[in-house]
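**User:** My hope is that you can spare some time for a protein that puzzles me. As I understand it, each token names a local backbone shape. I would be glad if you read both lines and explained how they fit together. The protein I mean follows directly.
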Amino acid sequence: MGRRRRKQIPTEPVDADIDDLSHDGRGVARVNGKAVFVDNALPGERVSFRYTWTRQRFDEARTEQVLEPAAERVEPPCAHTAICGGCSLQHLDPEAQRRRKAAVLAEQLEHFGGLTPEHWLAPLTGPETGYRGQARLGVKYLDDKGALVGFREKRSSLVADIRQCEILRPELGHHLTELRELIAGLDTRRRIPQIEVSAGDDALALIFRHLDPLPEADRQRLIDFCRARQWHCFLQPGNEDTVHRIWPEDGDERLHIRHADFDVELAFHPVDFMQVNPEMNRRMVPRALELLQVEPGHRVLDLFCGLGNFSLPLARRAGEVVGVEGSRAMVERGYENARRNGLDNADFYSWDLTRDPARQPWAERGFDRVLLDPPRSGAAEMIEHLPKLGAQRVVYVSCNPATLARDAGDLSRHGYCLESAGIMDMFPHTNHTESIAVFRRR
């Protein structure tokens, strides 16, 4: 049998009306009954687009010209939005972005959970640019372009050719050209595939992944670059366990973020998981605790607790807090932070949160309140066990509306009603939807 020939991509631009917006932020048109997903197009617009890919069930395209713009279209804050995959919605008014995310949350709750909350929470908002303190930047050296440093191109593994980023913290995002020049000047410039960025309130750290041992001259160039900016400089010659700091040579390797409302400071290593938007995190934690309605005598369970982002502020309000996390390293970090803040009413345990916790010592006394902040896969395995723990109120922080909705349906079947829900705009200009939901026991 001969090889199937791929359909030739049409070369001429096509004019079409945009009827909808896909979950990944592309406009949706229909041409001869077939869906076309169009970059940089919004519902209600008429655009001229050019095909970039054809498939059996749908096609893909990019906007060449906006013929009739939507009222919600705005000038993107970043000059590279057409090529860079770091953002997908900069051309949509931020308030409209939030309305769209709220609509996605409502749709998912109804579709997967069969639920509508009794009350919708007002969106939690924060800075719309310069907000990102955690990122993984691709690096590529090309003879014709020099060193590229940034996010990947839209729907591509290629590093985008950008000079400035408006979502990264300005001290880094507005100086990518200097970082490109640094890489271009290294003898090992072709062997640096990524730079990981991690920022605290007090400092910023760069982790340079290198595939070959660095000559001393390259090592010194990295140190000099970071020293001039008072940034921490780390190297990563292998997996995450090989990350080590080379400047400053002395002192604590930790970065720090502060929850001033709770007089809590969290120390973290640059490779630790932290919320990418620290200002929104400082607004999210108080909202979660307010919705949880914690009282001084309560015993509170924080599932998927990480290094204590919610646990330690909770310990300022509750009688006792138990944080549970799959990563033993994060549990150790939780204890480290409890000691740092003089908190002796917070305990941390490492446990596989896909397993029944009934026989675990930390679960035997039960809880008054439960907070969940799971990964994108959700907390399905834990839901059936929550009623046994006795909590009258559950707050669920989610980075995936679909798994939140699925778990909300399960919570409903296990005796909890969905009291309220709403979005938190943790990732402006992207299609990522962070949300929060409150459940009370019937």
Observations:
- The chain has three domains: 14-68, 99-127+276-441, 134-255.
- The longest strand covers residues 58-68.
- The radius of gyration is 24 Å.
